Amino acid sequence: MRSYKNSVTYWDDLSFVKNATASVKNNAIEGFTTYPNPITNNKFTVATSSNSSKSVTIFNLLGKQVFKTNFSGEKKDLDVSEINSGVYILKVTESGKTTTKKLVIR
């Protein structure tokens, strides 16, 4: 690390990040599935292996939230008729684990 005039700090060596690994497998929701994809009838199903509470959020490609709901149980049919056709990001969170997936609405 070098410090220069006016207390600006620059990092020369970022080796502390070198051994870091991101593990998606450990954060995956067990038994997660969603269907159909693409959605053609304004409804789709989110399912997992657990009855735990789930948070389902859909974002457009600009990152704006366009849909959000919560439910408990292994699966739920969701109505997305209020969302325009397009490509979205589906985010499902259950018991501290999160899964994201591309979602197409036609």
UniProtKB/TrEMBL annotation:
It comes from Polaribacter sejongensis. Pfam families: Por_Secre_tail. This is Secretion system C-terminal sorting domain-containing protein. The keyword Signal applies. InterPro entries: Secre_tail. Residues 35-105 form the Secretion system C-terminal sorting domain. Keywords: Signal.
